[in-house]
Design a protein that fits this description.
DNA damage, six-stranded antiparallel sheet, alpha+beta, six-stranded mixed sheet, ATP-binding, 470 residues, DNA replication and repair protein RecF, binds adenosine-5'-diphosphate, RecF_2, 17 strands
């Protein structure tokens, strides 16, 4: 009896092979990214190591202990949900090392929004853009956001981005001191089929996908449109969370879009009269694998961010408590393989219900990111507008720090209308925090005087009618 209670589950050879394969697929590409930067630049791995993060250089020991950032990686252990995702070495102090600076040295826009043609030479300092409403400040930020995968900070249709009256789409060109050395990036819809997709050239050579941008720089942003994040629909918070994950784990986007495609196939199939059960099962199995991987990647991200927030508490911005709800909530501690089986069963059992609803009611697409104001111990949506803004700023800065720590390269930060709602003291504190990140930040405002505390750390440009001057 006792023996039975402690008996380990016995797996068949096939199941074991499946688990091993699964663990390989879940070996989050965060680790791959780390390997990437550390293989290319030993110095950046030292940066990461100094900060207590595992790197490819220490990969032997990492894999040996079967643990990266609390995520078991082989060695017979399975990835599982739960508190294990919090960094185990949270007491490790940050080292003095700064992440490498990534900066734009040149930016050229053609037929981009209200810019017919713009050519800017920049040094490595931060850039402050001031000008009246409608001048083109956010447009310029949006152009820089196209140096990361996706549809930019407005999530606009490409057809809207091309300047009204332009005949051949838009283009953005940037010379960047990037994560892999200097690189020239060209992207846009010029010459492409209108509105479909944008092209990417790296040093003049066409890239396979825009995801290749993440090999060169990471771009993070905070815009006024994000002010309603805590009170708005959960889809906004999911998107926000997925962008956080993407900046560390570019594979996350592929998983999410493949999951989405599989889910749409399932919904379509369920709407048919007598759908083929074998086909449904095959699609659901695919959804289970992708869906659990997505959930794990999100949880790992939140674990890393939480550990970082805890280590750097007590600054001028409140810190956020982060958790996930809405998908596999009650499964803490279960191995990923079991999670997949559980989600598969949920999908299979929910066919009738989902067919009636016309959509899939369980899955990572129903997760919500729960955010709390830690110091006040209050849900973010119940905090005042000012507190919410401060919380959001704190969250984005913490994330930027995490990206710098994990990759060894500071992200490019776009902070639109950042100074507007902050008093003078908070503004100065913000500028110091931004500067300490070690990267290049672009900031906008209506009044240059708001930025005096930045002093020589930034160059100052005036924007008017789609033109930029010193
Ligand atoms: N596709 C486009 N073609 C031309 N002008 C555009 C296009 N899209 C937006 N605009 C113009 O850009 C201006 C808004 O610029 P924006 O960068 O948002 O201003 P702000 O400086 O206030 O941030 C508006 O005048 C708008 O009409
Ligand atoms: Mg604006």
């Amino acid at each position: 009896m006792l023996f039975e209670e402690i008996e380990e589950p016995v797996f068949t050879g096939e199941e074991l092979a499946k688990q091993a394969e699964h663990q390989r697929s879940i070996r989050l590409s965060i680790v791959m990214r780390l390997s990437y930067c550390t293989c290319k630049r030993v110095k950046s791995s030292q940066v990461a190591e100094n900060r207590g993060f595992p790197t490819a250089v220490s990969a032997g020991s990492v894999l040996g202990t079967g643990n990266v950032a609390g995520l078991p990686l082989g060695g017979g252990l399975s990835p599982c949900l739960g508190p294990a995702f919090v960094l185990p070495d949270r007491h490790v102090e940050f080292g003095p090392a700064m992440p490498h600076k990534v900066s734009l040295t040149r930016l050229k826009l053609t037929d981009f929004r209200n810019y017919a043609a713009l050519s800017l030479e920049l040094d490595q300092r931060h850039v402050v853009l001031t000008g009246e409403n409608g001048a083109g400040k956010t447009n310029l930020m949006e152009a820089i956001s196209f140096l990361s995968p996706g549809r930019g900070l407005r999530r606009a249709a490409y057809a809207d981005v091309a300047r009204v009256g332009a005949t051949d789409g838009f283009s953005v060109f940037a010379a960047v001191e990037g994560m892999d050395g200097p690189v020239e990036i060209g992207t846009g819809t010029a010459g492409a089929e209108e509105g479909q997709s944008r092209r990417l050239r790296l040093n003049g050579t066409p890239a396979r996908t825009v995801d290749e941008l993440t090999d060169h720089l990471r771009v993070l942003w905070l815009t006024p449109a994000m002010d309603g994040l805590f009170t708005g629909p959960s889809s906004d918070r999911r998107r926000f969370l997925d962008r956080l994950v993407l900046s560390l784990d570019p594979e996350h986007g592929r998983r999410a879009s493949e999951f989405d495609r599989a889910m749409r196939s399932r919904n379509r199939l369920l709407s048919e009269f007598r759908p083929d059960p074998a086909w449904l099962t095959a699609i659901e199995r695919e959804m289970a694998g992708l869906g659990v991987s997505m959930a794990l990647a999100r949880l790992e991200m939140l674990g890393l961010l939480t550990a970082l927030v805890e280590r750097s508490q007590g600054g001028s911005f409140p810190s956020a408590g982060l958790s996930l709800a809405g998908f596999l909530d009650d499964c803490h501690g279960l191995p990923a393989y079991d999670l997949e089986e559980r989600y598969l069963a949920m999908l299979s059992d929910g066919r009738g219900r989902d067919a009636a609803a016309g959509r899939t009611l369980d899955g990572p697409h129903r997760s919500d990111l729960l955010i709390r104001h830690r110091e006040k111990d209050m849900e973010a949506e119940r905090c005042s507008t000012g507190e919410q803004k401060a919380l959001l700023v704190g969250l984005v800065l913490a994330h930027a720090r995490l990206v710098g720590d994990m990759t060894g390269h500071a992200p490019v930060l776009l902070l639109d209308e950042i100074a507007a709602h902050l008093d003078q003291g908070r503004r100065a504190a913000l500028f110091d925090r931004v500067d300490e990140l070690g990267g290049q930040a672009f900031m906008t405002g209506t009044d240059r005087a708001m930025f005096t505390a930045l002093g020589e750390r930034a160059c100052y440009l005036t924007v008017a009618n789609g033109r930029v001057s010193e």
